[in-house]
């Protein structure tokens, strides 16, 4: 099973690296085409979120696939492959399946158990389907990944500890604002998926009055109406910043939205004695790095949250999800082993058909007196005999192949019958590898 997963997340890379790796939604189709154009990559799904960028790929060889994907990452980010390697995790074969299922269940999220990753995985799968970069293996993997994630959330309490990165960020913000955020005026910059999630979480927490601004006024208006907030024109951002205690910024901008100059002006205009707390949940960052350290400003970004390790669920809840993941990994591996032996079984049947056809030609050469009816009768008889002989062994080998260690049966069949099965060689394969997750 040449399934490879390579990526970087808040666990292995800081925001500066993630910013360079991040892939805007509009560029995802182009990146997918670059990936499947590589010599060792057959299929690819690209997951790009605020704190992870990873590729799931079907490759013809481990080392070749690893090199191809790393080179695409390096070209996109401008980080030399040798430097980038230290920030990447790598999973191969069974480990890649397990990683995919753990991600969908929320076990690999910054806030363990958050459900937002399911929507992000669904979007990634949709993009791969639209770009025609997912084949049989990744279609099956992503469908099962989404199902496992839904099962984990519906059957366990994994999401009780925190619904999103936003809730964890608010816990840190509360430490800067006396511990209670109820009634604190807030501003959300951005009306996309993360902005919407932020508005919902702030409303549930009791933060308010709440204002929303976005470059597209229409989206801000719709979101504000849905939650009883106030939409603020983006041109009035400076004024809004000076009148709130909490700012959540989560835009898709490739350049800082909150520059040092803009924040300096807002801080000078504030009358509150409490600090202005900015939750920067965007990657690339919305807050300019040089703004850090301004008097009266507290910036909480992805790096801050990664260091805080907030909202970890109870051990029992995590263990329950891990048990679900383990069982589902076994099921998927059984499917994979069965799928891998199918081409070998088909090649064996084709070989038998070729032998029958060759013998029929010899027989008819020796007996030209056979009528068309006799020829057809002999041909049908030979084919039935071969099919009956092959039926039980091929059914049984499929069953055996689905069991642990079953991959050996396909190899044995190929060797015993000298079968030429495309993509059946694994000369470049390596034992299961699990990177830093």
From TrEMBL:
Which residues are listed for NADP(+) binding in this entry? 190-195
- Bilayer-crossing residues are none
Q: What is the lineage of its organism?
A: Bacteria, Bacillati, Actinomycetota, Actinomycetes, Micromonosporales
**Which InterPro entries does its entry note?**
4pyrrol_synth_GluRdtase, 4pyrrol_synth_GluRdtase_dimer, 4pyrrol_synth_GluRdtase_N, GluRdtase_dimer_dom_sf, GluRdtase_N_sf, NAD(P)-bd_dom_sf, Shikm_DH/Glu-tRNA_Rdtase
UniProt entry keywords in alphabetical sequence? NADP, Oxidoreductase, Porphyrin biosynthesis
Instruction: Provide the top EC class.
Output: oxidoreductase
Name the protein family. Answer: Belongs to the glutamyl-tRNA reductase family.
What name has this protein been given in UniProt? Glutamyl-tRNA reductase
Q: How does it assemble?
A: Homodimer.
Reaction(s) catalysed by this chain's protein:
(S)-4-amino-5-oxopentanoate + tRNA(Glu) + NADP(+) = L-glutamyl-tRNA(Glu) + NADPH + H(+)
Q: Which EC numbers does the record give?
A: 1.2.1.70
- A Pfam family (short name) is GlutR_dimer
Source species, domain of life: Bacteria
Q: Which residues form the active site?
A: 50 (nucleophile)
Q: Which Gene3D superfamilies match?
A: Glutamyl-tRNA reductase, N-terminal domain (3.30.460.30), NAD(P)-binding Rossmann-like Domain (3.40.50.720)
| Keyword tRNA processing among record annotations | no
Q: Which residue range or ranges hold the Tetrapyrrole biosynthesis glutamyl-tRNA reductase dimerisation domain?
A: 321-419
**Other comments on record:** During catalysis, the active site Cys acts as a nucleophile attacking the alpha-carbonyl group of tRNA-bound glutamate with the formation of a thioester intermediate between enzyme and glutamate, and the concomitant release of tRNA(Glu). The thioester intermediate is finally reduced by direct hydride transfer from NADPH, to form the product GSA.
Any idea which GO molecular function terms this record carries? glutamyl-tRNA reductase activity; NADP binding
- What function is annotated for this protein? Catalyzes the NADPH-dependent reduction of glutamyl-tRNA(Glu) to glutamate 1-semialdehyde (GSA).
Q: Where is this site: Important for activity?
A: 99
- Where is substrate bound in this sequence? 49-52, 109, 114-116, 120
Q: Which residues form the Glutamyl-tRNA reductase N-terminal domain?
A: 6-156
Residues of the signal sequence?
A: none
